[in-house]
Design brief:
The structure holds two protein chains of two kinds. Chain A is an all-beta fold. Chain A is built from no helices and eleven strands. The mean pLDDT of chain B is 93. The chains are: A mainly beta, B mainly beta.
């Protein structure tokens, strides 16, 4: 079964502290993974995709196939990073449907 | 810039009513999706459409149906609304894209439906 697990519902850090949002997946083959973010009163939007190996707003995420993980990291959290974060996996079989994790609500305290 | 719009931000309906949620995208995307978003449950796919008049059930289709008569418009229908369908409903669209490096789903602002 294709599944995405985000073990933390809530994560709270102080401004300037490192932050890591965990994501684990189950998938046979080469997965395609994404992080989506939803700021307060805004629509859900793509933050980054693993295939692009990009850093967006200081966030990076590395695919670790051995640990089946795709954790999102930022070395110095900012208050504006407070949001709901979803890890997502593109389903197998040529479909263009995503499987989403249950989300982690990140709060960055001043 | 892709724009996905949803007909209502907030909707209050009574149990048993037939409810229509409308979604329109302006980027000529082939794929359109309906999700519901619930705290602690994340996003769950209700229905997916990959072309006009073509649809596939998602993970939680029970109690819902969809209609796609035009490429830009995808409607979600609650045949007989129930209180357990109170939720945030998100519409999304994506281009059918062979280049996985640029795959992205674009979301609407959501419709918060309350069934009383």
């Amino acid at each position: 079964a294709q599944r995405v697990t985000q073990p933390e519902k809530l994560l709270s850090v102080f401004k300037g502290a490192p932050v890591e949002l965990k994501c684990n997946y189950s998938y046979s083959g080469s997965p395609e993974l994404f992080w989506y973010v939803q700021y307060s009163r805004q629509r859900l939007q793509l933050l980054l995709r693993h295939i692009s190996r990009e850093s967006i707003k200081g966030f990076t995420a590395d695919l670790n196939k051995g640990e089946t993980s795709f954790h999102l990291k930022k070395p110095f959290a900012q208050e504006e990073d407070s949001a709901m974060y979803y890890c997502a996996l593109l389903r197998q079989g040529g479909s263009e449907k995503l499987v989403f994790g249950k989300g982690t609500k990140l709060t960055v305290n001043p | 810039d892709v724009k996905v719009t949803q007909s209502s931000r907030y909707l209050v309906k009574r149990t048993g009513e037939k409810v229509f949620l409308e979604c329109v995208q302006d980027m000529d995307h082939e794929n359109m999706f309906w999700y519901r978003q619930d705290p602690g449950l994340g996003l769950r796919l209700i229905y997916f459409s990959y072309d006009v008049k073509m649809k596939e059930k998602g993970d939680i289709p029970e109690g819902y149906s969809v209609s796609r008569e035009k490429k830009e418009r995808f409607s979600l229908i609650l045949e007989s609304a129930s209180t357990n369908q109170t939720s945030m409903y998100l519409c999304a669209s994506s281009l059918r894209n062979e280049d996985r490096a640029t795959y992205e789903q674009y979301f609407g602002p959501g419709t918060r439906l309350t069934v009383t």
